[in-house]
Amino acid sequence: MKKSYFLKLAVSEFHVHKKRFNLTVIAISWGVCSILVLLAFGQGMKDRLASTLKGIGDNIIMIRTRRTTLPFAGLPTGRRIHLNKEDTELLKKSIPEIKYAGGAYGRWESNVIAGRKEAEYIELTGVDAGYGKVRHLKSESGGRFLNSKDIAEKRKVIFMGRKVAEKLFDLNDAITKTLTINNVPFTLIGLLEKKEMSANFGSDEDSRSYIPISTFKALYGNRHYNRIVISIKNADDSEYVTKKIRKVLAAKYRFDPKDNEVVRVRDSIFMIKKLGAVMLGFQVLLGFVGGITLMISGVGLANIMYASIKRRTREIGVKIAIGARPNQIMKQIIVESFIFSVSGGLLGGALAYTIIYFFSKIPIKNPALQFVMNARLSFSVWITTAIVLSIITFLAGYFPAKSASKQNPIDSLRYE
Amino acid sequence: MNNSVIKVNNIVKEYNTGTVSVAALKGVSFEIKKGELIAVTGRSGSGKSTLMHIIGCLDQPTRGSYFLDNIEVSSLHPNKLAEIRNLKIGFVFQSFNLLPYLSAFGNVELPMIFAGIEKNKREKRVNELLELVGMSERALHKPTEMSGGEQQRIAVARSLANNPEIILADEPTGNLDSKIGESIMNLFMKLWESGKTIIMITHDPKVADKCQRKIELLDGEIL
Question: What is the chain A residue with the closest CA to B56?
Fold first, then answer.
């Protein structure tokens, strides 16, 4: 006996029991849809969190120095400690765990003009090419970050964050345009790509502008670094490296290694570890909520299937009386649950897709809400959910059908 | 070889209701020859339904033997029993028991589908049978669109689908008024005249009187 016939039988059955069919399909679709939407929002948040972590950079430790607060070896307190190029070399040499160490100059400049537009002020940072790599500062297409040639030739080129650039340019057509900073012309070579930076250092990356460190020194004559940015090879070494940095600098500049106020260290790795724990907790919560939702829709589904098969006990009895074999009875149930699963799964997926699409079209300015409203539909979650619900549908139909096909047909026939 | 289609030997059927076992049949023996028209009569609770279910291979006896076409069926595999019900026995029930979502045509076709008969042969046979029971014009109607008498005609056509030796009818006129009941009875007479073996369970004396022979049950024994 062919499967196609069972399909026909099931379809004509559904045609008569439209309500039952609709209810079952709605139950499956809703189950699939709610899990998909839920997990899509969760996945979106997770993605944002992950890209935020990535945005900070590769195991970044940032160092600034201030005045001493403890007397040391006969030296008074309140001595200003300054960092310079030799310190980056010294740190790299004395601490092999360091992958990159680079200085950064910083200053605020006003009188910034591009064409007819003017920005009140600009936060200028002078860095080398490696800084962009470790901080993951990438340009929008068409542009680039500073490279070693820019540094070597002291080029007057600038890489800008979006927030500052949009005051001066049309962002769609900004790269290669020029601007003047205090009458010094610069060429815009790159625009920071859009990314989420909830855990940035100091100020918002989008408001900064970067020029070659050599150009910066030549123009403004700074003798001291504003800060040193260090990237270490292994995140686990962060505490050790931090201690070592203090020790090396304390020995060079002769201050008390216990004077934590002199060297201020901002350790992104510590933050990343904390965020990582939050992310893991979040994932566990999502899995848990998804599982519970799946269970609830599964129970609802099992109920509908069980009731519908029970109601058909008599019909099963008739079929047995006119010669259906038990496995032929089972086949019909299997075909039926297959139809339920496919239609429910597709409908639920489409519904979830529609809801998520609708949400994605709502314009949101609030960065916190942007974090939440970033639903991403996961194909694998869709398939998994549909399969799990199909299995539940099948089992919920299978057991009553099996007992009906096995039980004495007379009892089935008498069942009202 | 003898020409008995059904040979029942000292059949006992006991039902276990908790701790007490109740005997519905207490050792029943009889033979039915090919082409006979038999009425099984008796008051309710006499065991006639139990007997019909055993003859119809829907139920199996607790003790005793039952030969159908010289095959001992009391210990067959469920799939084999399904095959026998499908090919050798045609059922007609008091409450018709048509599938509500299939047309008259679909209902008559169903036993042939279970038997694995190919489509064009099925269609030919269904049309013949609907013609035979006088329901050709209602082929595409659903049971809910038909009267009781019409539904029973479809049920009779269905019972004949795989051209079985035996027609088992359980109070076939019980749910019908006397006039329509009579026309259904005439249909059975026609089938009997064409050579079918018909066993009819009834407590209607008028129906029983039309049969060749009566098997009367009382408290699980043949009177």
Answer: A321
